[in-house]
Structures are given as C-alpha cells and as structure tokens.
Write a structure and sequence with these properties.
Number of strands: 8
Radius of gyration: 14 Å
Number of helices: 3
Largest sheet: 5 strands, antiparallel
Distance between the termini: 28 Å
Order of helices and strands: HEHEEEEEEEH
Shape: globular
Helix content: 10-25%
C-alpha cells in the first residue's frame, strides 16, 4: 500500500500509448487516458472519468491492486511545485470519506501544471 499512503519515490511522466496498452483490460468503453505517471512498477493514471492508482505487489508484480477514484469523490487537492532544494513536486488529494489526504510525489521533470489543470477541470465538472 506504499503507493496509496505516501510514495517513497518520485513518479515521472509516462507515454499515453504505453499506459493505454498496459491498462487496456481495465479501461471502460470509450475511456481515454489523459495523463499517466510511472514509479518503478506502480502507476498513476488520470482518465476522462477517474483517477486510477496501480500498485504492483510482490517480487514478480503479478498481484496488482487497481484503486479507482471518481473525480466526484475528490473534495480538495493541493499541488506543490519543485523548488531549489526540494527537487520533487507533490500532489495531495482529499477523498470523500477519508480524514487524511493521499500524498503522491513526482520528479522535478513532471509538468504538475498540466496535472493541476486537468484536475481542476474534472473536479469543477462534477
């Protein structure tokens, strides 16, 4: 559950084509991936309908947990950009029914402005 409580590493951007190929079995009909990030084996994916957190477990990564969060369940979020000494960006999500925010970290190359813009549009469009 390390991906879901607080990522130990920093996720980086992933190509939409690679993410679509890897998640083809769990995407809904006509569901499109808009942004995707990868951390070693785990993934963070924003589609046109939901946020999907993928946690590959064990040594082989055959056991996989897919956590699907509809945008309407996100009550608030905060984005922290990288700084001079803090080289990673951070996204905190407050999910309806949870007291503590979910924290996700991204490497400094990640365009957090694109992610923030997409989240703003999806949450406002509830």
């Amino acid at each position: 559950m390390g991906l879901f409580n607080a990522l130990l590493g920093n996720a980086g951007e992933m190509s939409i084509a690679d993410a679509t190929e890897e998640l083809s079995t769990i995407l809904g009909p006509n569901e499109q991936i808009e942004l995707a990030y990868k951390l070693v084996r785990d993934m963070i994916v924003l589609t046109d309908y939901r946020l999907i957190l993928i946690d590959k477990q064990g040594l082989t990564g055959k056991k996989v947990e897919y956590r699907s969060i509809p945008y309407k369940a996100i009550t608030m979020y905060a984005v922290e950009t990288k700084g001079h000494f803090d080289l990673d960006a951070e996204l905190k999500l407050w999910i309806s029914g949870q007291h503590e925010p979910m924290t996700l970290e991204f490497n400094g190359k990640t365009n957090v402005y694109a992610m923030q813009g997409l989240l703003a549009a999806k949450i406002a469009g509830k």
